[in-house]
């Protein structure tokens, strides 16, 4: 299969590169330098020139707080550019795998969110990502929308790397302890996509799927696990870690209080099981992350 990866320099894009190299697919990796999805004409021309069987969109405007002030750019990347890509896929008859987010929900649930649960984003980031999802569905293209959460890896900027960097600098840290989600290793997302690809030939229906780590926790508990693993490996960590309320750490954008995702649908349709995200923390730290 001929695959076009958009956003090859991000967390997921780099993990896709690492994993797809072990397959027989013909893969074209593009970053913003090759295809700037904000430039609709260039994107259209490049996709038509490439003529892929599948496009994996690993690009997004993910600066949750900045999106509140930069709504135009967030909407351009997460919604309008996605609509353009989906329309091209519809015209060309190729599949689109698009990565979305748990932030499409308001976080008021107390049981894991299913794909058909009511969406109600609380900020610009979640709102624009939801608009992107709706644009894909409206385009009529063959698609898989993969909602995930709390993504971390050895690449890019993420919570794991931020904790390692700050933990090496500070003796005491305070982390929000009343927001709950599921940390997800980007490599596991890449592998899930790779498992989906050969099944697309027999996949009759497009759809939304949830995929995240199988361990739910708070940001405080996530940080604690990171520091325990880092300390075990001989790295400097804070002497004291405090759990605080969201109200004690105000941010421009609201975060879902609870955003655990139910992943039973992807298991049923594609035989993909939830990954054990926490098991990868020590392995990643041991791999000499540069932070």
Describe the structure.
It is globular and about 55 Å long. The chain is built from ten helices and twelve strands. It has one domain (2-157, 183-215, 260-277): NAD(P)-binding Rossmann-like Domain (Rossmann fold, 3-Layer(aba) Sandwich), CATH 3.40.50. It has a six-stranded parallel sheet with strand order 2-1-3-4-5-10, sandwiched between helices. Strands 6-9 form a two-stranded parallel sheet. A two-stranded parallel sheet has the order 7-12. The longest helix has 22 residues, at 71-92. The protein has helices at residues 11-20, 40-50, 66-69, 71-92, 124-139, 159-167, 186-196, 219-232, 264-270, 281-286, and strands spanning 2-6, 26-30, 54-57, 95-101, 142-148, 151-152, 172-176, 180-181, 184-185, 207-210, 217-218, 240-244. Strand 4, helix 5 (124-139) and strand 5 (142-148) form a beta-alpha-beta unit. The protein is of the alpha/beta class and 291 residues long. 38% of the residues lie in helices and 17% in strands. Helix 6 (159-167) crosses helix 8 (219-232).
Q: Which fold name is given in CATH as the topology?
A: Rossmann fold
Number of structural domains? 1
Main sheet: strand order: 2-1-3-4-5-10
Query: Alpha-carbon distance between the termini?
Result: 36 Å
* Shape summary: globular
> What composes the largest sheet?
6 strands, parallel
Radius of gyration: 19 Å
- Which band does the percent of strand residues land in? 15-25%
Q: Report the CATH superfamily.
A: NAD(P)-binding Rossmann-like Domain
List keywords for this structure.
291 residues, alpha/beta, Rossmann fold, two-stranded parallel sheet, 10 helices, 38% helix, 17% strand
């Amino acid at each position: 299969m001929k695959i076009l990866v958009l956003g090859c320099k991000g967390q997921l894009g780099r993990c896709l590169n690492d994993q797809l190299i072990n397959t027989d697919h013909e893969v074209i990796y593009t970053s913003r330098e090759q295809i700037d999805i904000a430039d609709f004409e260039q994107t259209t021309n490049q996709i038509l020139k490439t003529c892929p069987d599948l496009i994996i969109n690993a690009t997004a405007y993910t600066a949750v707080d900045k999106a509140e002030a930069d709504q135009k750019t967030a909407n351009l990347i997460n919604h309008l550019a996605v609509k353009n890509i989906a329309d091209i896929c519809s015209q060309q008859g190729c599949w689109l795998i698009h990565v979305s987010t748990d932030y499409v929900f308001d976080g008021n649930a107390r049981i894991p969110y299913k794909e058909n649960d009511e969406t109600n984003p609380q900020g610009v980031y979640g709102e624009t990502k939801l608009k992107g999802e709706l644009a894909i569905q409206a385009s009529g293209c063959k698609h898989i929308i993969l909602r995930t959460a709390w993504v971390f890896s050895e690449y890019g900027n993420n919570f794991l790397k931020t904790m390692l960097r700050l933990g090496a600098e500070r003796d005491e840290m305070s982390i929000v302890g009343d927001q709950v989600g599921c940390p997800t290793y980007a490599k596991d997302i890449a592998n899930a996509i790779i498992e989906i690809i050969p099944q697309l030939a027999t996949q009759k229906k497009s759809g939304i799927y949830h995929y995240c780590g199988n361990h739910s926790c708070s940001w405080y508990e996530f940080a604690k696990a990171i520091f325990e693993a880092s300390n075990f490996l001989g790295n400097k960590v804070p002497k004291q870690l405090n759990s605080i309320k969201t109200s004690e750490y105000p941010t421009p954008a609201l975060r879902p209080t609870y955003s655990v995702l139910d992943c039973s649908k992807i298991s049923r349709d594609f035989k993909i099981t939830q990954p054990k995200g926490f098991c990868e923390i020590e392995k990643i730290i041991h791999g000499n992350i540069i932070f």
